[in-house]
Structures are given as structure tokens and as C-alpha cells.
Specification:
It is a multi-pass membrane protein. Keywords: Endoplasmic reticulum, Glycosyltransferase, Membrane, Transferase, Transmembrane, Transmembrane helix. With about 450 residues, the protein is α/β, with parallel strands linked by helices. About 60% of the residues lie in helices and about 5% in strands. Strands 2-1-3-5-4 form a five-stranded mixed β-sheet, sandwiched between helices. It starts with 5 loop residues before the first helix and ends with a strand. About 30% of the residues are buried. Residues about 1-15 have low confidence and may be disordered.
Length: about 450
């Protein structure tokens, strides 16, 4: 990461990197990335911190956590349902293309979903005899620390538990308060240590995203987006089974259905929407899908084959082909590290002329290579504010000519989507840039995102 904090000492003696505005504003907590930092530190101490391990080890760790949560989820369903239904619920869960797409990604949403599945296995659902209030509440508190919006999913479940609990005062004094306080204090101490000052990340997260509406800066959608697009895409080919399963659902599963509906409704009131935000309710939905599949009888085998085939196609396409250029281009950039180490004349200087955060950054390079991208911090109250990416795309040639008035200040490499090439061709030709690589990105280019990524190098 960036220089000058205790965080950097966990990674390497050679400090380089980039901190996004969220870390400068204190709305991101260190508890979650600290886990990966320890993995990186272990690799460094063993002298195995190659770029490939730095890329793959966090994914493997995330995948192992997701696999453990899947096993716990299967045992939970076995306790709740008969053998036939539980088998089909788990089949539906393993088939989900969106789970394949997200579960190994080091997103807070992925960890939130994993912790939610683990917590659900200890939650006092009707029919479950292996519940533990302290265990599930500890995991819920941890999920909220990782991503405060986890409280949206768990609010109806917490209320349900409270209403069903006979010893309500004991639940509050022996579970809710001590466990919530313990996890909050530990995460706050971690954040204060690494930020170097008193920082309550959960309050900052609420202040920026809800009270100040900063999330709206990154796009807003109509209120019905999750109903008409978000949820149908996330649940994918399971949708007909889910709707059928809702009609078959027993009374003991009504709280899970209520949680799904509640989560989608609450997120629908927030202007900024993304598919991954509702990922944590996907395991809940699989219980209804499996119930439906178990009741199909004559059509069960055909439905199962169709479900597996359709999800497999989606998972393979989105996981291996769609928008892969963002990762592939970093392999080309990473090769410049050898040039940087061996060159004594001109050090590589890479400029990404793309929508901000289109590609990974130093985690996929692992060397102090000079790199820069178009930044897009939100409007924090400045009059007439426009982020750097918007200013660039308003007039790419003007931005380039004013940013690099002298040839000596030019970067050595430019990385951009093919749709931009025509707009800046005069700059490329006038300054002696030539295309050295073309990398496939997507079959469905849209707006500023093209179908290919070009790398241009200065002669």
C-alpha cells in the first residue's frame, strides 16, 4: 500500500502503491484486508512473494472459506429438511452461476455472504437443533464489521430471534451487547492503529453513503431495478424454481423468504445499486429452489439437467471470457518490471486512459513501476466539481495536450479501450506512439468500455 503507515510495514520494506479516497476518508476498515496482509507477509518472510502467488493466494483463501461455508450450509439444510429435499437444495446451491462468479473474489460482499451462510447454520431456525446464539451473533457482528450493510440482511432475522426468545433480557445482556461491543472495540482498535488516529469506520460509512449520498456519485438506478433486473440476473436460471418454491414453502421458512423480500426492498430505496449487493440472500433462495425441484417428480431430472447446463454456460462465460481483458492487460504491464529493474536510461511510465478502477493495480504488478490512472473521487461539496475521468472524456485531446505539454513529460506506455483510439489518434501519431498489444476484453462493449484493450508504447 502507500507509504508512511504501519500498514505498509506488514507488506514489504519497499513501499509503493495507491490509496483510494475511501481510505483517506476513513470509510474502509482494516480488519478484512488485514487477513490478506498476513498472508502476504508470510509469503514475504518465506521469500515466496512472487506476483503469481500474490494474485492467487487470496483467491484460494477466499475459495476455501466459501467451500467451508457451503459444507456448513449443507449440514444446516440436512437438519431442516428430509434427505431428498436437502440434496436438491445443495444441488441448486452448487449450480448457481453467480456464486461461481463471486465466491472466490476478494470482495467484501463475498466475505459477507460467506459469514452470513456460516451464521445461518447456528441461527435458531425452526427445526434446527444445532443452533448457538453466541456463535451466530459473533459471525453476524463480524459480517457487519467487514461490510456494515450486512445489518440489512440480518435485521429481520435478529428481530425474529428476539421475538421468539423467552429470555429476552438475557439475550440482550449476555449476547447482543457483549458480542457486538467486543467485535466493534477490536475492529476500532485495529482501525485506529493503522489510520494513526481515532477512526470509527462504521459511522463514517453511514455518514458518507447514506447521510451525504456519496454512493449516488457512482451511478443511480430506478427503484424497481432489483425487481426487474438485479434479482433476476443474480438468481439466474433458478428464478422459475424460486417462484415455485415460494408457493410451496412451509411456515418455518417464511422468515427466510421475508428476509429476501426485506433485503431487496431496502436496497431498492438506495439510489446506487449493484448486483453484488444482494448476493448474501442467494443461499436463502436456494432453499426454495431445492424445495421446488424436489416436488417436480416427473420433470425433476430434465429440470436439473437444464439448470446445470444453463448455469455452467453462464459461469464459464462470465468467469473465463467476459471482461477478461482487465486482468490480461496486467500481465503485459507486469513484464515492464524487468525493464524497470534493468534499464538505466528510461524507466517505464504507464498511464491508464480508462474509466477509473477498470483494472487491478499494484497487486498484479508487485514492483515499484510508475503507473497512473484517471481518478474519480466523489464530489465532497466542491462547487462545479468534475472528476478527472469525466474531464478527460469530455475532451481527450485537450486533456492530453494540457497534461503533457512537453515531450519529456510523456508516459512511455498508454493503456486504453479501443473505442478511444480514434479520438486520440492525432496525439498518438504526433508523439510517436505505436500499438504493441491488442487484448480481447468483451463481446458486449458499452459506452467508454470497448471490446478490446490497446497498449501503445512511445518509440
Amino acid at each position: 500500500m502507500s507509504t508512511g503507515s504501519p500498514w505498509s510495514s506488514l507488506l514489504n520494506s519497499e513501499t509503493y502503491g495507491y490509496l483510494t479516497w475511501e481510505w483517506k476518508a476513513g470509510i474502509r476498515g482494516f480488519t478484512f484486508p488485514l487477513f490478506f496482509a498476513f498472508l502476504y507477509k508470510i509469503l514475504h518472510l518465506l521469500n515466496y512473494d512472487s506476483v503469481h502467488l500474490l494474485i492467487w493466494l487470496p483467491r484460494i483463501a477466499q475459495a476455501l472459506l466459501a467451500a467451508f461455508a457451503d459444507v456448513k450450509f449443507f449440514f444446516l439444510v440436512q437438519r431442516l429438511e428430509n434427505r431428498d429435499v436437502s440434496r436438491w437444495v445443495f444441488f441448486c446451491h452448487l449450480c448457481s452461476w453467480f456464486s461461481w462468479f463471486c465466491c472466490t473474489r476478494t470482495l467484501t460482499n463475498s466475505t459477507e455472504t460467506t459469514l452470513t451462510s456460516l451464521a445461518l447454520s447456528y441461527f435458531p431456525l425452526s427445526g434446527s437443533k444445532a443452533y448457538s446464539s453466541k456463535k451466530y451473533l459473533f459471525l453476524v457482528a463480524l459480517a457487519v464489521i467487514v461490510r456494515p450493510t450486512a445489518l440489512i440482511v440480518w435485521f429481520p432475522l435478529l428481530m425474529h430471534h428476539f421475538c421468539q426468545e423467552e429470555q429476552k433480557l438475557r439475550l440482550i445482556t449476555h449476547c447482543y451487547i457483549p458480542l457486538g461491543t467486543l467485535v466493534l472495540v477490536i475492529s476500532s482498535l485495529i482501525d485506529c492503529f493503522f489510520y494513526g488516529k481515532w477512526t470509527l469506520v462504521q459511522f463514517n460509512f453511514l455518514k458518507f453513503n447514506v447521510l451525504h449520498g456519496v454512493a449516488d456519485f457512482y451511478g443511480s438506478h430506478p427503484w424497481h431495478w432489483y425487481l426487474t433486473q438485479g434479482f433476476p440476473v443474480v438468481i439466474g436460471p433458478h428464478l422459475p424454481l424460486f417462484l415455485h418454491g415460494c408457493m410451496l414453502a412451509s411456515r418455518k421458512h417464511k422468515i427466510l423468504l421475508a428476509t429476501v423480500v426485506w433485503t431487496i426492498l431496502v436496497y431498492s430505496f438506495l439510489p446506487h445499486k449493484e448486483f453484488r449487493f444482494i448476493y448474501p440472500v442467494l443461499p436463502f433462495c436456494m432453499i426454495f429452489c431445492g424445495t421446488s425441484l424436489a416436488h417436480l417428480k416427473a420433470w425433476r431430472r430434465s429440470a436439473a439437467v437444464a439448470l446445470l447446463a444453463s448455469n455452467l454456460v453462464l459461469a464459464l462465460y462470465t468467469g473465463l471470457i467476459h471482461q477478461r481483458g482487465a486482468l490480461d492487460v496486467m500481465s503485459h504491464v507486469q513484464m515492464l518490471c524487468d525493464v524497470s529493474r534493468n534499464s538505466t536510461v528510461s524507466q517505464p511510465d504507464v498511464l491508464f486512459l480508462m474509466p477509473c478502477h477498470s483494472t487491478p493495480f499494484y497487486s498484479h504488478v508487485h514492483c515499484p513501476l510508475k503507473m497512473r490512472f484517471l481518478e474519480c473521487p466523489p464530489d465532497l461539496g466542491e462547487e462545479g466539481y468534475a472528476d478527472e475521468a469525466d474531464r478527460f472524456y469530455d475532451d481527450p485531446l485537450f486533456w492530453l495536450r494540457t497534461s503533457f505539454p512537453y515531450k519529456s513529460s510523456l508516459p512511455t506506455h498508454l493503456v486504453f479501450f479501443n473505442v478511444l483510439e480514434k479520438d486520440i489518434s492525432a496525439f498518438l501519431q504526433g508523439n510517436g506512439f505505436r500499438r504493441t498489444a491488442e487484448i480481447f476484453h468483451t463481446h458486449v462493449p458499452e459506452g467508454r468500455v470497448g471490446g478490446s484493450i490497446f497498449i501503445y508504447e512511445k518509440l
